[in-house]
Amino acid sequence: MRFFDRFRRRTTVGPEAIRARLEGAMSRRRLRGWNPPLENINALVASGGPRLLARARELVVTNGYAANACEAFAANLVGDGIKPSSLINDATLRDWVQKLWLAWTDEADADGLTDFYGLQAMVAREMFVAGECFVRLRPRRAEDGLLVPFQLQLLQSEMLPFEKTETAANGNRIRCGIEFDLIGRRVAYHFRRSHPGDSTDRLVAVPETVRVPAEDVLHIYRPLDAGQIRGLPHVAPAMVRLFLLDQYDDAELDRKKTAAMFAGFITKTAPEEPMMGEGAADLDGAAIASLEPGTMQVLLPGEDVKFSSPADVGGGYEAFQYRTLLAVSASLGLPYHLVTGDVRQANYSSLRAELVEFRRRVQQLQHGVIAHQLCRPIWARWLETAQLAGRLDLSDPVAARAVQWIPPRWDWVDPLKDIQAQILAMEAGITSRRKVVEGTGYDVEEVDRENAVDAKRAEGLGLRYRTSPGETQGARATPSRRPDAGSADDDTERTDATAGGGTTNQE
């Protein structure tokens, strides 16, 4: 019994012992001054959101690295568009839905500046700069002349005031401009009528807000923490480094400018005597001596010439820039060469390794944010509006919502090896042809229809390609026209049409 008591005393760990094992929780020595407040992310966004947003917008406009990273982020996230492939079983109805959707995309923008896929790119840029974007679903009248009376209006983050936190007249809570009911559901958004920073569209001194039901608003943002209600700029982790690096670059640029100004200073024992080569005085009355190419000037007695030698940048400038921009790229979650455009130290293996990891992150945003928060609700509202407008006849509207969103294709680092690997995967049954085609950013049914049309046209013209039915692996890749029946060349050999080709093929 005494043995167990001694063992229990040895194995019992008190709070101090546990805290001592957690180095990050220690309060002695190096960590004495590290006492961050335990605040919720919503409190941080509400207090610092406006200033963070203003700095992020200025940084993307004035800093070249931030601007390049913003465009790279949007280009890789949505590219030329994340496009739908309807899963309706009826082939005729599916084709009509796809054609009607494609025609409507040109009319989707309420401002008339771009199409639906251009709006996706604008949303991606807003996610990088502001961390969020609002899309208002705007129904239109039949007399507006739209194929489907439905459009989209993009609203910036500033349109929803961070400081609007109060209790509404109906008892609901308004937090950072978003109205929640008693069980925490979003029921409305309180938008400003005009942008607070746009002096050309100032309706009143202080823009008033208007209540918009939540079912007419899409809030596009990437939630980082559970319960987060507003987005954080994607550029936020790199903002300080980019700002300070920009200032450092400006200082070094001024240093080089000063070093390029070749200046000479003449000293003499008798200031009242004229100086060698003395010319007209400058605005301050000081005499200026000119220096001309090829001049060999003899100094007068008592005169001496000294030239300025400003400090140079130093040999560590480029290494410091490289390491700083590596940290910036890591903070942004973007490959170094996409932020800087510098591929001098890259090779095939390094490029492929970083692109594979980067594309995994992009796919998270494509499927979890853009497709889920933006594309699917718009598809559902568009189908409903098209049916109400008489453009579609859907016997089962719920089943018609089934759709697959296809992201843009990735450009390969080594196309030949990747395509060969895909062919082997299909032959082994590891993947399907549909998956391979959709990986290129296209709908497999659309590709099949185009192939059928191409094959029929080539057969009608008497053309034979390597991809034509019945052609062997060694067939030529360029077309050769079949001779007309009964002609004198029926039994002659037809040479390859490629320049310099020496092979022959017989029918």
UniProtKB/TrEMBL annotation:
One of its GO terms (molecular function) is structural molecule activity. It comes from the Bacteria. GO terms for biological process: virion assembly. Residues 460-507 are annotated as: Disordered. Pfam families: Phage_portal_2. This is Phage portal protein. The lineage of its organism: Bacteria, Pseudomonadati, Pseudomonadota, Alphaproteobacteria, Rhodobacterales.
